[in-house]
Amino acid sequence: MEISTVLRLGAVLVVCLVYITQAQDPSCRCATHFKGQCNSAVGNASACSCTLGVGKDLQPVDCTKLMPKCWLMKRESLLKKEGRRERPPNALVDNDGLYNPDCESDGTFKARQCNGTETCWCVNTAGVRRTDKGDLQTRKCPELVRTYWVVVQMKRNNSDIGSNDDVKEALTNLITSRYNLPGKYIDNIEFEGPYIYVDLKQNSSSKAKGEVDITDVGYYMEKDIKGESIMNTDQAFAISAKGNNIAVTEPLILYIDDKPHEISMKRLTAGVIAVIVVVVVAIVAGIVVLVLTRRKRGRYEKAEMKEMNEMQKELNS
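The structure corresponding to this sequence follows.
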């Protein structure tokens, strides 16, 4: 065997050994996405280099904190088009559902989204549509309006377990530890019957560089509550209040922006139109019944008066 061939085989074996060592390194893994791939530098297991497949691209990511919602939505949208995953039901005010967003290099949403078509609209920092849709040439989005308030609504299934104070403490600990969101951004946690409301507030002036964004927390929490967690498989989502596991379902995430949205009511959905038609028909039917009833009563009263007059004439004669 030639020396050059031996050297090539030796190089291939070294590379394979490196990959095997990296794969077996338990300390180098992606905690914030189960599909994230991490490799450690040779001789330095603490220095992990991580990527996440977004379409055909391998996006470098920091697996020590939540990944930007824009990249996650883009990945999910592209996977849906390939038929690998079902589209999750949309619980946002936006009602536009999942789409393939355009992202900046740091993972934030671009202010204008078109989803590969000639129709465009403006979004907030959560990627939720905040304007009417318009033509590619005319729809301008001069700024990315910040979402400063995220409301996470969930339904508590076992409301008889654990006091509200215990559940509030458990949720606070969960949000700060699981999503690495500083506690100062948890503005309030309220209870109303079986429903729990978590208010997350974060102004652009108060958010320090590198801190987790509340819109990303909302996205991760929605996935966790639906049972579609995208975190590492050994990090199960659980709200543990004094040893009791609190089960929650039906997440609804609401986004409130720094500026009022610009969505008009010019285009009503088919469902809204159907409701309006049913209400109008019911009102018209009620009016018709009322009119017919009054007419019938009037005729009856006239006939009754006529009979009384005839009887009075007979008595007088």
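The two ends are 144 Å apart (CA to CA).
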